[in-house]
Design brief:
This protein is of the alpha+beta class. The chain contains 5 helices and 3 strands, in the order E-E-H-H-E-H-H-H. The protein has one domain: GIY-YIG endonuclease (3-Layer(aba) Sandwich), CATH 3.40.1440. Strands 2-1-3 form a 3-stranded antiparallel beta sheet, with helices on both faces.
């Protein structure tokens, strides 16, 4: 069984970057080597501010997109433990399905 994670990095300039991985330790190493993304390449070093284990790849990718849609204040609340990703994501999905 593979592990799937969604994560938020804090970049050296204070900005936040959200991504998905199956290997947290290696992904951070790749980011800090400058090979993971154009965005983080110019904002090194980076460090994990948040990560959450997901059910599977699909769940992780959906949560990545959801986190990217949050404003900075909400992302910081998530990082600081004031928001629960699974709860706010479930509410988002329910609200979205009611609109259909």
């Amino acid at each position: 069984m593979s592990n799937h994670y969604v994560y938020i990095l804090k970049c050296s300039d204070g900005t936040l970057y959200t991504g998905y991985t199956i290997d947290l330790k290696n992904r951070l190493k790749v980011h800090n080597s400058g090979k993971a993304s154009k965005y983080t390449r110019t904002r090194l070093p980076v460090e994990y501010a948040y990560h959450s284990k997901c059910v599977d790849k699909s769940d992780a990718l959906k949560k990545e997109i959801f986190i990217k849609s949050l404003n900075r204040k909400k992302k910081l609340e998530l990082i600081n433990g004031k928001l629960d990703l699974n709860k706010i994501y479930t509410l988002y999905i329910k609200k979205k399905s009611n609109k259909l």
